[in-house]
Amino acid sequence: MSEVSGKVVIITGASSGLGEATAKMLADKGAKLVLGARREDRLKKLVDEIESSGGQATYQTVDVTKKDEVKALAKAAIDAYGRIDVLVNNAGLMPLAPLDEMKVDEWDQMIDVNIKGVMYGVAAVLGQMREQKSGHIINLSSVAGHVVFPRATVYCATKFAVKAISEGIRRESNGEIRSTNISPGAVATELTDHISHKDSKQMADDMYDDAIDADAIARAVTFAIEQPGDVDINEMIIRPTRQEL
Q1: How far apart are CA 136 and CA 169, in angstroms?
Q2: Coil, helix or strand for 183?
Q3: Closest Cα to residue 146, out of 118, 184, 90?
Q4: Cα–Cα distance between 78 and 88 in angstroms, integer?
Q5: Would you name the residues annotated as active-site residues?
Q6: Rounded distance, CA 245 to CA 139, Å?
Q7: How many beta carbons lie within 10 A of that of residue 100, not counting itself?
Q8: How many whole angstroms separate alpha carbon 188 and alpha carbon 99?
C-alpha cells in the first residue's frame, strides 16, 4: 500500500496549476484531500472530478493572506478527517517588474501571499501536528529562491524566505515534523498571467517557452510524501532540461 493512502493532505492554491495537478495525483493514490483557494467554482469542479473517480476530497474557499481563513481551512480538515498529515503550501504570485518601476502594491501582494501566506499555513497546522507527534509541511519555493535575477528582486526575496522557513521547520522539528522545500523552474501554470510590466512579461514568456507540465511537480510532492516516516526529503529543484537559470 502506498504511504500516501489514507493521509489527510491540505493543499492551498488548489484551483489550478501545481495545486490542481497535485490534488489529482494524490487522490489517485488514496489521500484524503482538503483543497483551498479563492475560486470556489474551480474548487467545486475539482472535487467533483476527484469524487467521480473514487477519490476523497472536500474544499473550502480561502485567501491565504487572511490568517483566520487559513486557520478555518485547517479546522475543516480536522472536522472532516480528524487529523492533518500534510500541508502543501502552494499558493503564490509572481508579478515581475524592475525595482525602478516602484510597484509597491505588487511588492506588498507578493510578501502577503508568498511569505505571510506560507507562515499562516504553518501556524494553522503546527499545533495539530505537534499533538499527533507527526506531520509533513511541503513548501513551494522556486529556482528564484536560489538565484536572484533582474526584474524579479522582490519575488526572489519572497522565495528565498520560503526556503529559509522550510529549513527552520526542519531545524525545529524535534524529529516529529518533516519539511520539504520544492523549487520549480518554468512550469506551465497561470503564474505568468498576472505580470503587469510589459518587458518583464515578455522575459517570462520567453523563459516559459520550454515550460514543463505541472505533473512534474505533482510527482515530486508525491515522492516526498511517499517516503517512510523516518525519511525526510528536504530539498528538490526541478527545472526543464533546457532551462539555464
Answers
A1: 10
A2: strand
A3: 184
A4: 16
A5: 155
A6: 20
A7: 6
A8: 26
Cell 519539511 belongs to 179
Alpha-carbon distance 164 to 181, whole Å? Answer: 9
Q: CA–CA separation, 90 vs 70, rounded Å? A: 13
Kindly give, in sequence order, each residue whose CB lies less than 8 Å from that of residue 179, ignoring residues fewer than 6 positions away: 136, 137, 138, 139, 166, 167, 169, 170, 173, 232, 234
Residue 178's SS3 state is strand
Distance CA 155, CA 142 (A): 9
Answer left, alpha or beta for residue 228, where phi above 0 means left and psi between -120 and 50 means alpha.
beta
CA distances to 75, 83, 110, 141 from 80, in Å = 8, 8, 31, 29
Q: Are 142 and 184 in contact (CB under 8 A)?
A: yes
**DSSP structural state of residue 213:** P
Is 18 within 8 Å of 184 (Cβ atoms)? yes
pLDDT tens track for 206-217: 888 999 999 999
Q: Residue 201 carries which side chain, given as an amino acid letter?
A: K
pTM: 0.96
Amino acid found at 104: V
Residue-wise DSSP of 73-88: HHHHHHHHHS---EEE
Residue range 158-200, pLDDT digits in tens: 999 999 999 999 999 999 999 999 999 999 988 888 899 999 9
Residue located via cell numbers 533546457: 242
Closest CA to 232 of 151, 169, 184, 156: 169
Q: Are strands 135-140 and 32-37 parallel, antiparallel or unpaired?
A: unpaired
Assigned C-alpha cell, 137: 509541511
